[in-house]
Amino acid sequence: MGARWRAHWFHIIFGHEDMAGRRFDLLLIMAILASIAVAVMDTVAQAHARYGKTFYVLEWIFTLAFTLEYLMRIVVVDRPWRYMRSFFGIVDVLAVLPTWISLVAAGSQYLLVVRALRILRIFRILKLTRYVGEADLLWLTLVRARRKILIFFSTILTLVLIFGALMYLIEGPEDGFTSIPTSMYWAIVTMTTVGFGDITPKTILGKMLTSLIILIGYSIIAVPTGIFTAELAAGMRTKKRKLMSCARCGRTDHEDDARHCRMCGAKLPLESG
Amino acid sequence: MGARWRAHWFHIIFGHEDMAGRRFDLLLIMAILASIAVAVMDTVAQAHARYGKTFYVLEWIFTLAFTLEYLMRIVVVDRPWRYMRSFFGIVDVLAVLPTWISLVAAGSQYLLVVRALRILRIFRILKLTRYVGEADLLWLTLVRARRKILIFFSTILTLVLIFGALMYLIEGPEDGFTSIPTSMYWAIVTMTTVGFGDITPKTILGKMLTSLIILIGYSIIAVPTGIFTAELAAGMRTKKRKLMSCARCGRTDHEDDARHCRMCGAKLPLESG
Amino acid sequence: MGARWRAHWFHIIFGHEDMAGRRFDLLLIMAILASIAVAVMDTVAQAHARYGKTFYVLEWIFTLAFTLEYLMRIVVVDRPWRYMRSFFGIVDVLAVLPTWISLVAAGSQYLLVVRALRILRIFRILKLTRYVGEADLLWLTLVRARRKILIFFSTILTLVLIFGALMYLIEGPEDGFTSIPTSMYWAIVTMTTVGFGDITPKTILGKMLTSLIILIGYSIIAVPTGIFTAELAAGMRTKKRKLMSCARCGRTDHEDDARHCRMCGAKLPLESG
Amino acid sequence: MGARWRAHWFHIIFGHEDMAGRRFDLLLIMAILASIAVAVMDTVAQAHARYGKTFYVLEWIFTLAFTLEYLMRIVVVDRPWRYMRSFFGIVDVLAVLPTWISLVAAGSQYLLVVRALRILRIFRILKLTRYVGEADLLWLTLVRARRKILIFFSTILTLVLIFGALMYLIEGPEDGFTSIPTSMYWAIVTMTTVGFGDITPKTILGKMLTSLIILIGYSIIAVPTGIFTAELAAGMRTKKRKLMSCARCGRTDHEDDARHCRMCGAKLPLESG
């Protein structure tokens, strides 16, 4: 009977198929979003001054609920140890640990650090990824283009290093280019067209080099976009085509729902799988 | 005879086919653009000081004209109630209401609020969308890519939340990162390469994380562009298909070079042109 | 004999085929670039202080040379009046007029205005477009996508108007949003991810709306890129394909250099044109 | 025996095939990255104050190692003179020269210049490109699109010149537009959506022109991206062709579904796999 009780709750907590499982999922997502909202709003000075106490209570309610959920997951799952070492097992414990630690280590001097730990609770949002099943195609496209992206980033970083060093030599510390790392930060900010404006070239030579750097960065922006688009378009085209060939005229490249060859009209063989 | 009068004006106001209907449309578009220009220019201090009175008179002329147009629409249309609750019915009334309310509520203390209400009059520009019939393909592409766009935005917002919280911890209030919401605003401004520069990292660790955030945002910029382009290219390719239908099974949407129906194998008719 | 002299110079000045014509073209391009460089450098205070006199002399040498060239063009061309009213006829005269006017109108009080007129001389660079024959494909793609681009810009401007008005209401003059036109300028700067940072939101509501505006603008950046890429890709694909069909098996869509059908091996008909 | 010794070391230093060669490559890459890290960190004031001496010693260790490597390369290679004049021969010597020069020219007054020379050592990173063999496709795509890119940049620069001159006339030196070159720098920063904000328009006319410039630049951003994507997609499609050759006429590069050679009509061999 204990086994049946466990199986029942396992379906509710881990399953997404039946009504009860979906309701639990929805409830959990809303609780995660609400707990993040509380943690985020608590850092706003005015909100903390007015609703600090409410936030504190809500914080503990969420922590207790998530702790209970975590313990339930360990109890109902078949191999608790495997779950605890899985990605979401670690995320689940990271989502409640900071608040519990703040209780134990609550000395006046550790207060700020604990507050920092509490913000880690936003990693609860990673739990949401569990519910996204559509991200696969995008992810696959990124994975397929990974070598091209790696080369692209190496090129960018080499350019950032060379341009950063040149700007450090030309402009120097008095114009904000205080070191090569700072210059490299500026080069990244500039080449990606972010352009904060906290550091800007003052000399004529510096402005000329900056113009060149920007135009190069501007051209390079085409590269990752082009890579990704070409890969995605190729992926979408492949998915929509049958790979079998017509037995009579040999024509391949038929549409997904084709039953007859569009060239000679012969019946196409059935696809297995 | 009243019916003929109504039908006559219905064609002028709601129709776009004959000369009179097109002239009315053109006149209305120009009136809308002119009334918006007046409302916009009235907020410029120098213009208000010099032409404030003229603007006030023009404002009332436009309001009276649009009110008359709205009443005419109600009178000539077959089902007035249905029109009034339609999107453009609500827009049409919103376009004149603020000025009328400013008359009723014109106390000295409400003056500023009324001015604000008057600016709502710019929603008249939404009336222009009535005349744009070409936007369909673009809109369709956006709709078809909506799931991918949703996932993309969820990813962006998760990254914004995590990076915002990290920058809040690293930089802190003294460098402008006063709260997590402010940090998230900064993360959005940075990841989208807007880069206002009102808040910028000061510490070395903050600058390093900023560089990382920018490069990630820079890579991600490829995603929505790629999605949209691939969808649009697929849509344009589909449009080039044959529009004729199979004589035997009625199947339409054949490929450009198809000679036989891909469903039943029957010969397709030759296209003339 | 005068006719032969004219024909000879017509070939040199207007022709691009033989050695003399190409040498003249090259000389003219270099003179145009040099004269622009002089006009540009003359506005730099330090350069003007040191080389102002040299710039003045060079300015007059270029003006005399371009005037002589303009007169020569009128003399050697068959229909001078038609040339003078052509685009490049007007550009050619605009390229020398400002300097000549500065001579006539050289009163001390007009000096600045004249200086301004002299800068118009940079329109000489438009002459360079005469030598660019490769821009056609890009231009054609832009022309073919013009309706989509028009709709896109209308949408952008409507959004700019609505968001500009909203930000004017939310932030108000004290935060830099002094009028709706200024707010619209800010909205354009923000939505296009330029982000100067001369005007930035200060209130929480303003920052939230700004985040929304940026994310919308960020999504919309995909639209013109996608349109252009899809059009260009379609244009490139069309150019590379033969449109004739195989007489034996009816297969269309052959490569540009194909002589035999790749399906049945039958000889393809020769293309006329 | 000296020849055998040379051949042995030639394989280690120049070869990438066997174990020893790959180990040497890996060691060299790590040494290059470490030496760049030292040179970069030495420009940070705090790091220089604390670890300046360590950096100095490490600097000399790397310089000695790279000098030894350079001499070894000259000794073991067959035609030393050809290597020394090759691209990587020059890079290899540039990577050690600055530190050696700092020894000879170490007068107190040359100190800053020498420091500058030492930074040139970062060109060592160019050595890394030797190990990147995957960059070919990207590079090829850029090369194939070079004419289009050239026209694109000419257009951009013409627009930058015209808009820069116009903004100089409209805004003038008192608003930061001190000269046409500065205005052109601003136009590049603005049109590429970098937008530092160090120079911004103050007048209404200037803001209107800026909005126009931004929208034009925003449209133009679609051009290089579109060119690159279309070229890359075309390149990827080409790659999917059959690599086998026709047995009769030797023609390669057939389409994926080709059964007959499109040149001579002979049957193509079946592909195995």
UniProtKB/TrEMBL annotation, chains A, B, C, D:
<feature type="transmembrane region" description="Helical">
    <location>
        <begin position="87"/>
        <end position="114"/>
    </location>
</feature>
<keyword id="KW-0406">Ion transport</keyword>
<protein>
    <submittedName>
        <fullName>Ion transporter</fullName>
    </submittedName>
</protein>
<keyword id="KW-1133">Transmembrane helix</keyword>
<feature type="domain" description="Ion transport">
    <location>
        <begin position="23"/>
        <end position="233"/>
    </location>
</feature>
<dbReference type="InterPro" id="IPR028325">
    <property type="entry name" value="VG_K_chnl"/>
</dbReference>
<keyword id="KW-0813">Transport</keyword>
<dbReference type="InterPro" id="IPR005821">
    <property type="entry name" value="Ion_trans_dom"/>
</dbReference>
<feature type="transmembrane region" description="Helical">
    <location>
        <begin position="212"/>
        <end position="234"/>
    </location>
</feature>
<keyword id="KW-0633">Potassium transport</keyword>
<feature type="transmembrane region" description="Helical">
    <location>
        <begin position="149"/>
        <end position="170"/>
    </location>
</feature>
<feature type="transmembrane region" description="Helical">
    <location>
        <begin position="26"/>
        <end position="45"/>
    </location>
</feature>
<keyword id="KW-0630">Potassium</keyword>
<dbReference type="Pfam" id="PF00520">
    <property type="entry name" value="Ion_trans"/>
</dbReference>
<keyword id="KW-0812">Transmembrane</keyword>
<keyword id="KW-0472">Membrane</keyword>
<keyword id="KW-0407">Ion channel</keyword>
<feature type="transmembrane region" description="Helical">
    <location>
        <begin position="57"/>
        <end position="75"/>
    </location>
</feature>
<keyword id="KW-0631">Potassium channel</keyword>
